[in-house]
Design a protein that fits this description.
Layout (H helix, E strand, L loop, with lengths): L1 H30 L1
Length: 32
């Protein structure tokens, strides 16, 4: 059970957060 939670936690942190940061960077580039 813990392994499943850890897997989804890693997927969230290593998948969603980089995507979110990339989206912010792209957004700033498009505004210039």
């Amino acid at each position: 059970m813990d392994a499943v939670i850890e897997y989804y936690a890693k997927t969230f942190f290593y998948g969603f957060i980089p995507t979110l940061i990339s989206g912010v960077i792209i957004g700033k580039l498009l505004r210039k």
